Amino acid sequence: MGVLSVPAAVRAVLLDIEGTTTPIAFVKDTLFPYIRDHVQEYLRAHWEEEECQQDISLLRKQAEEDSNLAGVVPIPPETETGEEDSERVIKAVVDNVHWQMSLDRKTTALKQLQGHMWRAAYTTGRVKGEVFEDVVPAIRKWREAGMKVYIYSSGSVEAQKLLFGYSTEGDILELFDGHFDTKIGHKVESESYKRIAASIGCSTDNILFLTDVTQEANAAEEADMHVAVVIRPGNAGLTDDEKSYYSLVASFSELCLPSSP
Fold it and tell me: What EC number is given for this enzyme (predicted)?
């Protein structure tokens, strides 16, 4: 690795989050365990709120659709208003969430509840989004040089904004010109990168994409984007062929912009 010269055509940098700006361990060891450990507490605290009841209704509907799957935990309807009845429903929701997470499912119902729980955790200071220490200084330098900086993650735009709005470096949302999630397309499909370029208002050749996932790098490259693969602690290892084929960086500080001295 070392210094990587950014092509002169590049006007914008597109960043992945997990394994690129943020340790994979933060998602695996902090965010997801937070849900498992606090879902019962969250449901009790927010039970009377309409948003929470909508989350439960969605999970109940998902459980009905999953009725043919082994191990599924059904969620009974609330029949009374008593505390005993609500605790019965809460226990079923907790068990259902744990079951879905044990299978690494990504259902809309589960993601919606997780998103609301993470929002509460971030805004109350119980969780802070982790970013690698080289990220903020490098992005500030890129922006001073006239670069636009965007985020593209499989996590929702709301989840992205929470992570960077309540980060270990404070609120750093001002560093980003825009956010994209899988609503614009999946990260392993080249068309997604063309749509992002169109949304930004430039050619794919004007964008450098940084990711730790070679399948994503390949899709971006197929769309004629410039690509560098990020090597971080905890990231999946690369094959020898991948190491020789892709431009590699271990820190954002290794990128040398065309306008840099």
Answer: 3.1.3.77
- pLDDT bucket at 259, cuts 50 / 70 / 90: low
User: Which of 123, 144, 161 delimits the end of a domain?
Assistant: 123
What is the domain count for the chain? Answer: 2
Binding residues for substrate, as ranges, are 153-154, 187
Query: Between these two residues, 106 and 15, which has the higher pLDDT value?
Result: 15
Binding residues, by number, are: 16, 18, 153-154, 187, 212
- What CATH number is given to the structural domain containing 35? 1.10.720.60
* Whether residues 156 and 245 fall in one domain: yes
- Write phi, then psi, for 63 (nearest 5 degrees): -60, -35
Spatial contact of 221 and 230, defined as CB atoms under 8 Å apart: no
Q: Is residue 80 scored above 80 in pLDDT?
A: no
- The C-alpha atoms of residue 261 and residue 252 are separated, in whole angstroms, by 16
Backbone angles phi and psi of 207, in degrees to 5? -120, 135
Mean pLDDT over all residues of the chain?
94
Whether residue 150 is found in the same domain as residue 55? no
Residue ranges at the known binding site for Mg(2+)? 16, 18, 212
Nearest by Cα to 152 from 97, 102, 195, 101: 195
Q: Is the pTM of this model over 0.85?
A: yes
Q: Cα 229 to chain center, whole Å?
A: 17
Whether residues 150 and 239 fall in one domain: yes
Examine the domain organization and report whether 141 and 161 are in the same domain.
yes
